[in-house]
Amino acid sequence: MNLTVNGRRGWYEESCRTLADLLARPEWTGKLVIVELNGELAGREVYEDTLLNEGDRVELVHFVGGG
């Protein structure tokens, strides 16, 4: 399925069906993120139940510690 993640359009395998699946990908594993799906914030409590659809736009903002 085609998704736009952080402004980059790309193809994601069919096993990437939910926000939780997307966040389980190696580039996001273990990172604290804020998720916006099609312009709406998505809370952590809905990641497992929120299905991704063809053409969705996802913004993932992650925090980096430092001083």
Characterization of the model:
- This protein is mainly beta.
- It has 1 helix and 5 strands.
- The chain has one helix spanning 19-23, and strands spanning 2-5, 8-11, 33-37, 40-42, 57-62.
- It has a 5-stranded mixed beta sheet, with no helix packed on it.
**Number of extended strands:** 5
**Spatial order of the strands in the main sheet?**
2-1-5-3-4
- Residues in helices, as a percent range: under 10%
Low-confidence stretches: none
Strand content: 25-35%
Helix-strand sequence: EEHEEE
Radius of gyration: 12 Å
What class, by secondary structure content? Answer: mainly beta
Mean pLDDT: 94
**For the terminal residues, how far apart are their CA atoms?**
39 Å
Number of contiguous helices: 1
Largest sheet: 5 strands, mixed
Looking at the structure, what is the overall shape? globular
Key structural traits:
67 residues, mainly beta, 1 helix
In short:
The chain is mainly beta. It has one helix at residues 19-23; strands at residues 2-5, 8-11, 33-37, 40-42, 57-62.
Q: What order do the helices and strands come in, and which of them pair?
A:
Layout: E1 2-5, E2 8-11, H1 19-23, E3 33-37, E4 40-42, E5 57-62
Parallel strand pairs: 1-5
Antiparallel strand pairs: 1-2, 3-4, 3-5
